[in-house]
Design a protein that fits this description.
Layout lengths: L1 H33 L7 H4 L2 E26 L2 E28 L2 H7 L4 E2 L6 E4 L2 E7 L2 E7 L15 E13 L7 E6 L4
Parallel strand pairs: 4-7
Antiparallel strand pairs: 1-2, 2-7, 2-8, 3-8, 5-6
């Protein structure tokens, strides 16, 4: 009985220790975008943003993408978002990437958080090359992010109240667009 009590305590401790690590993927991704070229300047001039640490995309003729993210209003975490994309056309392969959607003003924020926001055909994303590394040890964890102005392909700008940046994580895919992405939104505390 005593041994099972220790086991339960050990499991509870491990679960509590893992919780901050799960939350860190959002702050780490935000730091990558803050330090990766042109996207960094958008934090100071945007009303809000949605960050998706990992979006998975794959296709062969017909493709799809999916990612889960968090929405921030004036720097404060206010809700969760899911992104889905279906695409048809010439495409092959798979890739993983991080994505951030900057929302220029309250109108754009309200439109995004209405629950049924979608990118049309004319939206372009700026693809950034950046790297991240981290280590974990018994003394704590560390992480670093690198990126520079040279890493951004072109200067970003708002288009109809939004600006989109992507950091490639891996994979190879012929086709990289955000057209047709659909976003759902759920405010904090709402089930």
């Amino acid at each position: 009985m005593r041994k099972s009590g220790r086991s339960l305590l050990l499991i509870a401790t491990m679960l509590l220790a893992a919780t901050p690590a799960l939350a860190d993927k959002y702050s780490e991704t935000v730091e990558l975008f803050k330090n990766a070229g042109e996207s960094g300047s958008f934090f100071g001039k945007s009303y809000g943003y949605a960050v998706f640490p990992t979006v998975g995309k794959a296709g062969l003729g017909i493709g799809g993408a999916y990612g889960e993210g968090r929405v921030y209003e004036q720097g404060k975490y206010v809700g969760d978002s899911k992104m889905k994309q279906l695409s048809i056309g010439f495409q092959a392969g798979g890739q993983g990437y991080s994505q951030i959607v900057f929302l220029a003003d309250k109108r754009a924020f309200d439109e995004f958080t209405s629950g049924n926001f979608e990118f049309g055909a004319n939206v372009n994303a700026i693809v950034i090359t950046a790297s991240a590394s981290g280590t974990a040890a018994t003394t704590g964890t560390t992480g670093t992010a690198s990126g520079g102005k040279k890493d951004a392909a072109t200067a970003g700008e708002f288009h109809k109240g939004t600006a989109v940046f992507i950091i490639a994580k891996g994979g190879l895919m012929y086709e990289a667009s955000v057209s047709g992405q659909k976003f759902s939104y759920k405010p904090l505390g709402k089930k």
